[in-house]
Write a structure and sequence with these properties.
The chain has 164 residues and is mostly helical. Helices cover 74% and strands 0% of the residues. It has one domain (12-161). The protein binds protoporphyrin IX containing FE (HEM). The chain crosses the membrane at residues 12-31, 51-73, 100-123, 129-152.
Length: 164
C-alpha cells in the first residue's frame, strides 16, 4: 500500500469536514430532547409524540458518514506534522484526543442507531455516556487550540481555519 503523504497544511476539504462535523455534533447535542422523549415512549410502549424525533437521527448518520469520509481523505491526502511544543506529554495528549474524537464520532452514532433502530435500552444509555465524553474531549480540544493560538502564539487555529 502506498505511504500516506505528509502535506504542509490541512486541505480545504479537511477543514470543511472538520467544521461541518463539529457543527452537526453541536446541533445534535443541543437538540436532543425530542429523540429522548421519543425513545422513552418507544421503550415504555407509549405512542411516539407527533413530529418526534425530528432530525436527530439523520444528523447523527451524517456525522458517521462524514467522519468515515474524513478518515479516507486523511489517509489519501495525509495531514501536516503535529506542532511540537516543549511539553511532549501535552503534545501526545493532543494526538490521543484527536484519535478519541474520531473514534467517538463513529461510536456515538452507531450506539444511537442500535438504540433507536433495535430498541436496545442499554445502547441508549451508552450513547448518552459516549456523547458526553465526546463533547467533554471536544471542549478541552477547542480550549487547547485557543490556548495555542493566543497564549503560545504558534498559529494552531490557523491550521484548521485558513489552512496554513
Ligand atoms: C470550536 C471547536 C473546535 C476547535 C476550535 C477546534 C480546533 C482544531 C484545531 C486547531 C485543529 C488542528 C490541530 C493541529 O493542527 O494540530 C483541530 C483538529 C482536529 N479536530 Fe478540532 N476543533 C473544534 C471542534 C472539534 C470537534 C467537535 C471535533 C469532533 C469530531 C474535532 C475533531 C478534530 C480532529 C479529529 C482533529 C485532528 C485532525 C487530524 O489531524 O486528523 N474538533 N481542531
Amino acid at each position: 500500500m502506498a505511504a500516506t503523504p505528509s502535506p504542509r497544511a490541512y486541505s480545504k476539504v479537511q477543514i470543511g469536514l472538520h467544521w461541518l462535523i463539529a457543527l452537526l455534533i453541536g446541533l445534535n447535542y443541543i437538540f436532543s430532547e425530542s429523540i429522548e422523549e421519543a425513545f422513552r415512549a418507544v421503550m415504555s410502549g407509549a405512542p411516539v409524540p407527533e413530529g418526534a424525533p425530528g432530525l436527530h437521527a439523520p444528523i447523527g448518520i451524517a456525522v458517521l458518514v462524514l467522519t468515515l469520509i474524513r478518515l479516507v481523505v486523511r489517509r489519501v491526502q495525509g495531514v501536516p506534522p503535529p506542532l511540537v511544543s516543549d511539553k511532549p506529554l501535552m503534545d501526545k495528549l493532543g494526538q490521543w484526543a484527536h484519535s478519541a474524537l474520531y473514534g467517538l464520532a463513529i461510536l456515538v452514532p452507531l450506539l444511537g442507531m442500535m438504540a433507536w433502530g433495535g430498541g436496545i435500552g442499554i445502547a441508549g444509555g451508552a450513547h448518552g455516556l459516549a456523547v458526553n465524553l465526546l463533547v467533554a474531549i471536544a471542549f478541552v480540544h477547542a480550549a487547547a487550540a485557543i490556548f495555542h493560538q493566543y497564549v503560545l502564539r504558534d498559529g494552531m487555529l490557523n491550521r484548521i481555519t485558513r489552512g496554513n
